[in-house]
Specification:
With 436 residues, the chain is an alpha/beta fold. The strands form four sheets. A six-stranded mixed beta sheet has the order 10-11-9-12-13-14, with helices on both faces. α5 links the parallel β13 and β14. The protein is elongated, with a radius of gyration of 31 Å.
Length: 436
């Protein structure tokens, strides 16, 4: 059974901020001893860090929940609670992180040691020392800590390779990789011998080096989920040059030129931008009977179907078995890589804008709906955050929350919607009566 895993869905939860404290000094001539409660500590972030030692997302197969620690509560004598340590999660190079709910890409992690905060910890709640005023020198008000960010993420691993080998099953991709690199892919005389991507490093005679990925064989319909192609086409996206391997002996009974067209159609159907990558056609198995004649026919058809202004792709006849023509192929590949820039995988429209973790001034502060039992339901990010951070064990804090709702216009909005004295109002699981 293959232990390669290149997609994973996980949940991350940053730490909550610590609660602020209500405390008082024991000091003569100071009302209630004076406020002395400290702030809570910051909750821990969840941070992804690229680790070049990892090759798959297998670590996320059995561990799908990652939760950072919450900050410590505030203490007496005005002491702040300790902030929590960030939770570091190691991911392999080439990991794309998406928000599972929106589908937006949060980050593309490709550099060793690269870091990205995928969930921000909540700030600590303020202690009562922060609420002291000349009118209220001894407040019994404190805040609960801000909740840490919680989200579901979709991880996709797209292996880092300069060159990708594509082609139908059994055209000799794995054999080619094994003779030009030190990689040891599985090789067999049957289809889909390769069921996971294999990666190897090539060093040419002139000293150039590049990474080559052998991808599981594609078949017609791969971009729509047929065969193994739908799982591994994503790995071609990071490559800069494509080596299109074709069985020029037609040993499987297929037409080499039709194979060429079919594979290009699958690449185009999966992602149109894959056709921007330069291709080199590798005419493999030239040591077999009929290969030379088939190559002549292939070149003729290729020339007939190319526009006169288009540049024909390079064709290199090789034999992986006898190692014929390999040095010329590798030198040409290295030369093409030198003049081929990196391809941008995602444009700005696909990337999620940098998130502001405060209140969005443009977003509505609250929303009013009606429940089945005729209760009024208040919701909205700003309102719900104020609610969660209110310490309802303290009467002064409850009165402060009521003033905040009034300042946001909740009372007027409920009145305009038809709320009457004594109607039930609900925020989450908390209920109170509307007083007109």
């Amino acid at each position: 059974m293959s232990m390669f895993l290149d997609t994973a869905k996980i949940k991350v939860k940053a730490g909550n901020g610590g609660d602020g404290m209500v405390a008082f000094r024991r000091e003569k001539y100071v009302p209630n001893g004076g406020p002395w409660g400290g702030d809570g500590g910051r909750g821990g972030n969840v941070i992804f860090v690229v680790d070049e030692g990892l090759r798959t997302l297998m670590d996320f197969r059995y561990n799908r929940h990652f939760k950072a620690q919450s900050g410590e509560k505030g203490m007496t004598k005005g002491m702040h609670g300790r902030g929590a340590e960030d939770l570091i999660v190691h991911v392999p190079q080439g990991t794309t992180v998406r928000d599972a709910e929106t589908g937006k890409i949060l980050t593309d992690l490709i550099e060793n040691g690269q870091k990205f905060i995928v969930a921000h910890g909540g700030r600590g709640g303020r202690g009562n020392i922060r609420f002291a005023t000349p009118k209220n020198p001894a407040p019994e008000i404190s805040e609960n800590g801000e909740p840490g960010q919680e989200r579901e993420l979709q991880l996709e691993l797209k292996i880092l390779a300069d060159v990708g080998l594509v082609g139908f099953p059994s055209v000799g991709k794995s054999t080619l990789l094994s003779v030009i690199t030190s990689a040891k892919p599985k090789i067999g005389a049957y289809h889909f011998t390769t069921i996971v991507p294999n990666l190897g490093m090539v060093r040419t005679q002139s000293g150039e080096s590049f990474a080559v990925a052998d991808l599981p064989g594609l078949i017609e319909g791969a971009s729509q989920g047929v065969g193994l192609g739908t799982q591994f086409l994503r790995h071609i996206e990071r490559t800069r040059v494509i080596l299109h391997v074709i069985d020029m002996s037609a040993s499987e009974g297929r037409n080499p030129y039709e194979d060429y067209l079919a594979i290009n159609k699958e690449l185009e159907s999966y992602n149109l931008r894959l056709m921007e990558r330069p291709q080199i056609i590798v005419a493999n198995k030239m040591d077999m009977l009929d290969s030379a004649e088939n190559l002549k026919t292939f070149k003729k058809k290729l020339a007939e179907n190319y526009d006169e202004f288009d540049e024909l792709p390079q064709i290199f006849p090789i034999s992986s078995l006898t190692k014929q023509g390999l040095s010329m192929l590798l030198d040409a590949t290295a030369e093409l890589l030198d003049k081929t820039p990196e391809f941008l995988l995602y444009d700005e429209s696909e990337m999620e804008e940098e998130v502001y973790y405060g209140f969005d001034e443009d977003a509505p502060a609250f929303d009013i709906s009606r429940d089945d039992d005729a209760a009024w339901v208040l919701s909205g990010d700003k309102l719900e955050k104020l609610f969660v951070m209110t310490n309802f064990d303290r009467e002064e804090a409850v009165m402060k929350f009521a003033r905040q709702l009034r300042g946001m216009g909740v009372d007027e909005a409920l009145r305009a919607r038809g709320a009457k004295d004594g109607d039930l109002v609900r925020i989450g699981n908390f209920e109170f009566e509307f007083v007109d």
